[in-house]
Amino acid sequence: MTHLPAIEPRCFDEAIASKLLDGAESMPRILILYGSVRERSYSRFAAEEAGRLLTQMGAEVKIFNPSGLPLPDDAPDSHPKVLELRELVRWCDGMVWSSPERHGAMSSVMKAQKHG
Q1: DSSP states of 9-73 as a string?
Q2: Residues in Cβ contact with 111 at an 8 Å cutoff, skipping those fewer than 6 apart
Q3: What is the pLDDT of residue 115?
Q4: pTM of the model as a whole
Q5: Which domains, and CATH codes, for the chain?
Q6: Which of 37, 30, 29 minimizes the C-alpha distance to 112?
Q7: Is the pLDDT of residue 95 over 80?
Q8: Which of 31, 35, 66, 79 fits a disulfide with 92 by CB distance 3.0 to 4.6 angstroms?
Q9: Which residues partner with 98 through β-bridges?
Q10: Which pLDDT tens digit goes with each residue over 2-28?
Q11: What proportion of the chain, given as a percentage, has pLDDT over 90?
């Protein structure tokens, strides 16, 4: 089992995890987005842990780093971070979002990714 510091190994049923791929033609591709650019970001920590769990269950996981992503309508569509995010969205089969709450809503960093 991969290094999963928050999971008690005897509680992780690898047989159940392997059944998620039964009959699948390929591993599911999951994009993980998090909504904070702080160095000590708990939403990033949660996103990374989700990525480890999904990888252990057989998914192919990519995590988008939002640092440098411009605000909507603040940069051309050709901005490198916008292009990177759009390519990842086309690549994935599903997404996991992790965002801190700001006054009852997701963070502005998360909203910028939503419009990317």
Answers
A1: GGG--HHHHHHTTTT-SSPPEEEEEE---STT-HHHHHHHHHHHHHHHTT-EEEEE--TTPPPTT
A2: 72
A3: 66
A4: 0.81
A5: 9-115 (3.40.50.360)
A6: 37
A7: yes
A8: 31
A9: 34
A10: 667 767 777 777 666 666 667 677 889
A11: 41
Nearest to 27 by CA among 93, 97, 96: 93
| pLDDT given for residue 21 in this prediction | 67
Q: Which residues lie across from 63 on neighbouring strands?
A: 32
Q: Write the DSSP symbol of residue 74.
A: S
- Is there a contact between 50 and 74 (Cβ–Cβ < 8 Å)? no
Highest mean pLDDT of the ranges 29-33, 40-44, 103-107:
29-33
Report the SS3 class of residue 76: coil
Spatial separation of the C-alpha atoms in residues 25 and 68, rounded to whole Å: 35
Task: Tell me the pairing of strands 29-34 and 60-64.
Answer: parallel
Q: Order of strands, edge to edge, in the sheet holding 60-64?
A: 60-64, 29-34, 94-98
Q: Which two tokens stand for residue 18?
A: 């392997």
